[in-house]
Write a structure and sequence with these properties.
42% helix, 7-stranded antiparallel β-sheet, 14 strands, 3 domains
Amino acid sequence: MLLLLAAVLCAAARGQEATGGRFVCNAIPPGAEPGCGYGSTGNRVQSSSPLEDELRNTILQLRETILQQKETIVSQQGTIKELNSKLARCEGSRRKEYGKNTMGDLPRDPGETIDQLGKTMQSLKGRLENLEVRWHQQIASGLRELLRQRLGALETQLLRKVAELEEEKSQLYNETAAHRQRTESALNSLMERITELEKSNNAFKSPEDFKVSLPLRTNYLYGRIKKSLPEMYAFTVCMWLKSSASPGIGTPFSYGVPGQANEIVLIEWGNNPIELLVNDKVAQLPLAVSDGRWHHICITWTTRDGFWEAYQDGERLGTGDNLAPWHPIKPGGVIILGQEQDIVGGRFDATQAFVGELSQFNMWDRVLRPVDIMGLANCSAYMPGNVVPWIDANVEVFGGASKAALEICEDRAFDS
């Protein structure tokens, strides 16, 4: 290529010579730039012509272009070699595949094979994507169902546990309430007993050794029993009393209930004998206790046939029946000592008031045996009432009535 360029340049020089200029072609020294500016000695000839400068620049540009094309050709040759190597490997692989064809089919066109492989690959890719989508959907659906079942089971367990805790809480609350109630009841009983003992220690030797004194016939002196009565179908009332009032000792006690102020009354009024009233029905008793001495009296009654008994100082002095038969004693009333009630707990009449002293007022919800009554009367037995016991804490006094210490058996012996 360089020789061709040198010939072109020489021809151009001859053309210049024909037009009146003169150029001489000389050999180019090794390593020198191609051109015509050299003499026979190899030295570069100085040129002052503009045409020579233009030719020199053109030669330099052509040289640079040739070098660039050379580099491009070398690069392309390497790429061609690499492609040929890859193509050879592909053809060898296809020959192996064709060699496995037992039917002896002829190899297909490479382009058609590549297209077919591309379509097959695309189809397989689509099927794989579909399978992945379906697999993910099935997994998601299965996971949702499993999660739903698991959440349902957990919710059921949680509700069962909450129900068990609520039941345990309720049982614990009930047990705690019952235990608290029992504890409070026991503490109240203990406090009452302590109060009774403190009062007895301060006033009486024992809680039952006292008397109630009602010295005047008025409508405002009386005692009140704090305990009320249950419904009863029989009763026994016993007491010690001392009176010399006249005419009549009055009303030692009365029990009134709503709707019936004379549910149970023991009264001696005016010149009448002592009377027992049950449900406002009257029985006269053969008792005489107005001599100013202590006397023990007991009265029994049962709803069966209205049968009654009257005891004085341990001896039975009279009996009778048909006193309010088959009538049960009503509960929830008030027991008053020393006054007769016209309404429950009040409206007293001074002419019916008891004047004297009372002690050991006890009541039972059954008929006591004669031997038991005799033991109480001669002080050989101590039997507090199971319904109303004579205890200091159970008796209140009002209007000037008073309580004082009394050992009834010693005082009675002294009177005798």
